[in-house]
Design goal:
The complex is a heterodimer of chains A (about 400) and B (about 240). Chain A is mainly alpha-helical and about 400 residues long. Chain A has helices spanning about 1-20, 20-35, 40-65, 65-110, 115-130, 135-145, 150-160, 160-170, 180-195, 195-210, 215-245, 255-300, 315-335, 340-365, 370, 380-405. The longest helix of chain A is centred in the last third of the chain and has 47 residues, at about 255-300. Chain B has about 240 residues and is an alpha+beta fold. Classes of the chains: A mainly alpha (about 400), B alpha+beta (about 240). Chain A: It is a multi-pass membrane protein.
């Protein structure tokens, strides 16, 4: 019974924790402009994050080594450092976007200027990173994030033509007024939003933090293969809502209030209240995860004690990095930069940085020395290779597409 | 976090490759707390008879910075020193004696606590000269043997009673991916990656270096001269 409960808890937090600011914004934008014609891209991205999260979780269980230990071991200190810098930039950018997202969501509730809320959010994030227990942080924010299921309810209430949505999704029916280059740009952005690199740092380091053993492998797999796809359905629901409401009007999504609007239209005040709770929980949870990821990757590259499984006094450099990262993020947001713009930049950056972390994981997951009997099977290797090619393609295409399309305008 | 038995102990085996199995690994103390990375390794060359051996783990910026630069690491090393010219030991890395290593798996486990553990690398005893593995890796190999072409990619060590004797050089063209381990044969990679890396590294060989003395290595020019009696072997384990 206890095992079943913990399994259910894990799956629920995986669903609630799946969506972050990047998913919220990009899915709503894509839904409004392309209807559900990119539904398959979301599906491909979700399967991709499942494949790699499972692999990195398995590597963490078997070798007790998280991602960045392996990056330095397998690529050497020089390539590893390049990788560290690129990953840190993208993760820090995502951290900025998530904190900005929390502030925007709180601003929607309180009508206070988000700039005034940002320092408070920074302080709260840092307090959680410093004080809260790892599992408590994960569970509370993950469960609250489930409030985003209200998007699925809203979509049902809005009553779209389901046959039409299905048709758009499975035939990738690009609307006539958009070009294939913008389509490709948003496809890469969606892919980057679904497969952000920090999720892999966080997932593998979290496995070490929570002391996963071989017997926890099946729980980990259930979390990944049930929780993540259901979280992916939430992404599709967000796109579906935006498509149903904004598609016919030809409105572009440029703010967080617009992402929430379909829920307000469908379910009124109550719906709006629930979706705002979901926004705050999802972005706050992701802010904690990205914040920790900056400390994880630096600590693991240089060999410092990292993690919340020791007291803060035992991992002082790690906690110092968290303080500095939070200050930096708050400072960047206080310049008045639009968090939605930062989010767009961070998902494209994620697409560029993806191969850097996925390649070493794929290599080590095949190393008998580390993995013993839990080495990659033929299916994991086939999928892993297909995705390696896909992430390399997305990484190469991302920046040229960004320039050509002028960030998709 | 006790990961002491996450992997078999390499020290119980016949041989290990310094760059592949030891360099850049995490060092963990007796309580499972993290200490540092293996940023470089100290190699001792003995004047009287004994074969060269890896003797200490080196760590800290003074060990890591030179490895970031070109093979000799002079440029970045000089910059690093110039940032703190007043420190006499700026260029001396921190060291851990390999006597403290009890288990070598996915991490390097010590039998001591991390508190106050790291001290500067001591000067060598009489009749001993010390070098770093980072200097040796990437050196050009000169030999009359037709199969030995390219650079020193790794050194194979033999753990003997707490000592790590330098037995072989892994020699091959310096192409990317030699730290992936595909070339040493203990690996079943995804087909695509394995084929590419195996093709890139098909000229890799194991050269015995039991007879190499420090004089055979030109540290400034970065060249290793292998003598006539060098034997050549396949590089894969067992």
């Amino acid at each position: 019974m206890k095992k079943l409960l913990s399994l259910a808890l894990g799956i629920l937090t995986a669903i609630g924790g799946f969506v972050d600011i990047g998913d919220l914004v990009v899915n709503a934008q894509v839904g409004a402009r392309f209807d559900l014609s990119m539904g398959l891209v979301v599906a491909v991205g979700v399967l991709g994050i499942c494949v790699f999260a499972e692999m990195s979780g398995r590597v963490a269980v078997c070798s007790k080594r998280p991602t960045f230990d392996l990056v330095r071991e397998r690529l050497g200190p020089r390539m590893g450092l390049l990788n560290l810098v690129a990953s840190l930039i993208v993760t820090a950018l995502t951290f900025v976007a998530e904190i900005g997202g929390v502030a925007l969501a709180l601003a929607l509730i309180s009508s206070v200027n988000p700039l005034l809320i940002v320092p408070l959010v920074g302080l709260m994030v840092w307090l959680v990173l410093w004080r809260a227990k790892f599992s408590l942080m994960e569970n509370v924010l993950g469960l609250l994030g489930l409030a985003l299921i209200v998007f699925a309810v809203a979509l049902w209430k809005l009553g779209p033509d389901w046959g039409d949505l299905g048709h758009q999704m499975f035939t990738a029916a690009k609307p006539g007024d958009e070009t294939w280059t913008t389509y490709a740009y948003y496809a890469v952005a969606l892919f980057g939003a679904a497969m952000t690199p920090y999720e892999v740092f966080f997932f593998s380091s979290g496995g070490v933090e929570e002391g996963w053993e071989e017997k926890d492998l099946s729980t980990m797999r259930a979390n990944v293969f049930v929780g993540f796809p259901l979280g992916g359905l939430l992404s599709l629901a967000i796109a579906g809502c935006a498509s149903t409401l904004f598609g016919p009007l030809g409105v572009d999504v440029a703010s967080l209030s617009q992402v929430a609007l379909p829920v307000g239209v469908a379910l009124g005040k109550i719906g709006l209240a629930v979706v705002l709770v979901g926004f705050v929980a999802a972005t706050f949870g992701a802010a904690c995860e990205t914040g920790l990821s900056t400390g994880y990757s630096l600590g693991q590259y240089f060999g410092w004690q990292w993690g919340k499984y020791v007291k803060p006094g035992g991992a002082t450099r790690f906690h110092l990095v968290l303080v500095v990262a939070t200050f930096l993020a708050v400072g960047i947001l206080m310049t008045g930069v639009d968090p939605i713009l930062v989010t767009e930049a961070s998902v494209v950056g994620s697409a560029v940085a993806l191969p850097l972390t996925y390649f070493p994981i794929l290599v080590v997951a095949n190393d008998k020395d580390y993995m013993g009997e839990h080495i990659n099977g033929p299916l994991a290797n086939a999928l892993g290779t297909v995705y390696l090619v896909l992430v390399v393609l997305a990484a190469v295409a991302a920046l040229p597409l960004l320039v050509i399309t002028g960030m998709g305008s | 976090m006790d990961d002491r038995f996450a992997m078999d102990n390499r020290l119980d085996g016949q041989a290990l490759d310094a760059a592949l199995h030891l360099l850049d690994r995490q060092v963990i103390d007796e309580d499972g707390l993290l200490v540092c990375k293996v940023d470089d390794l100290e190699i001792s060359f003995y004047d009287f008879g004994s074969p060269p051996a890896v003797t200490r783990i080196l760590t800290g910026p003074a060990a890591l910075v030179p490895r970031m630069s070109s093979r000799t690491g002079h440029l970045l090393r000089k910059r690093w020193i110039s940032l703190g010219v007043q420190y006499a030991d700026r260029d001396v890395p921190l060291a851990i004696s390999l006597d403290h290593v009890v288990h070598l798996g996915s991490g390097v486990h010590l039998d001591v606590s991390r508190e106050g553990l790291l001290d500067r690398q001591p000067p060598p005893d009489d009749g001993v000269r010390i070098r770093r593995l980072g200097e040796l890796l990437g050196m050009k190999v000169e030999s009359n043997h037709p199969e030995l072409r390219g650079k020193v990619l790794d050194v194979r060590l033999e753990p003997v009673e707490g000592r790590y004797l330098l037995r072989h050089f892994v020699v091959g063209p310096g192409r990317p991916g030699s730290l992936l381990g595909y070339d040493r044969g203990d690996f079943n990679g995804p087909w695509l990656v394995a084929v590419v890396v195996e093709r890139l590294h098909r000229h890799i060989r194991l050269a015995s270096c039991a007879n190499v003395s420090e004089a055979d290595i030109d540290w400034d020019a970065g060249v290793v001269h292998l003598r006539e009696d060098t034997t050549v072997d396949d590089v894969s384990f067992d």
